[in-house]
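Predict the 3D structure for this chain.
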Amino acid sequence: MARTQGSRAHITGPLIRDTARRLFARHGYAAVSMRQIAAAVGVQAGALYAYTPDKQALLRDLLDSHMQDLLDAWRDDPGAAPLARLERFVRFHIAFSLDHPDAVFLSYMELRNLEPANFARITALRGRYEAALEAILRDGVAAGAMRIEDPKLTTLALIAMLTGVTNWYREGGRLDRDRIVQIYWGLARGAVGA
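Done. Predicted structure below.
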């Protein structure tokens, strides 16, 4: 019996997280109860607490894992030219965002629902990611390849622009991913005065 339960745990835990991510993204964190998550997963509400202490911890874990995945996936090449690095960032950010739309939505829209300690942790992770882009921009200015008045503000504006693609993009729509990346790369070049 314990073996069956143990073998289901590796299925149930991720299912709870995936279901919570989807429900939070569709209905909002505040509107979704632990009972709704349990019902969607097909378990009793009490069973959720074997996987997470509470709804706040579940949200924190979802946002934390998204930011960790994002940071782990991004690879800069400081030896490359700043514009090549920026293009790589644009391509990476759009692809990652389109591959994880619910996680991206949560990381921007539900950050406000985190308790202060959780908020501080997630914003610190976001700060690390933003700093990676800001370093590219500062290097671009230093090399004379970019004309930017405020690298920090430009960083925030670029990330918001690139992330915004998740709000309207639909697979099979008028523009495919490659065309979207080309257009956004042109917008990003213009934004940095390249």
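Confidence is low (pLDDT under 50) at residues 1-7.
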